[in-house]
Amino acid sequence: MVRVRTGKTMTQGRKRHRKLTKGFRQSRHNLYRQSLVTLIRARCYAFRDRRARKRDFRRLWIVRINAACRMRGLRYGQLISALQKANVVLDRKSLAEIAVHDAATFDKIVDLAKKHL
Q1: Quick one: which of 71, 101, 106, 112 has the fewest CB in 10 Å?
Q2: Does 61 reside within a domain?
């Protein structure tokens, strides 16, 4: 005997699945089998890119800190090394924020680092 696949459970599952694919283009959001493949791929990209975003932001912060340091006659590596010797516990994110938004404070941090070189 053949199986019936039009039951309430199957329909609700497909409906829930279509809700997740809202915003996908063309038939990728309303044809079930195609949307299933697209959703699997989208979740893989999301998983991968959550980690890539962390790397990208760290690179951005380093570039910003390096630019601000070079304007004050210091290299990025020298700044980080000197701050470690001075026992200054500031991460790259906060250093980049200070460098962009508060130049006077960053000048003081660079002066402190120059003392410990």
Answers
A1: 101
A2: yes
* Dist CA 22 CA 30 (whole Å): 8
Number of domains in the chain: 1
Would you give per-residue pLDDT tens digits along the chain (117 residues)?
677 777 888 889 888 888 888 888 898 888 888 999 999 999 999 999 999 999 999 999 999 999 999 999 999 999 999 999 999 999 999 999 999 999 999 999 999 999 998
Q: Is residue 1 part of a domain?
A: no
Q: Which two tokens stand for residue 94?
A: 């906060």
Identify the domain containing residue 33 by its residue range: 8-115
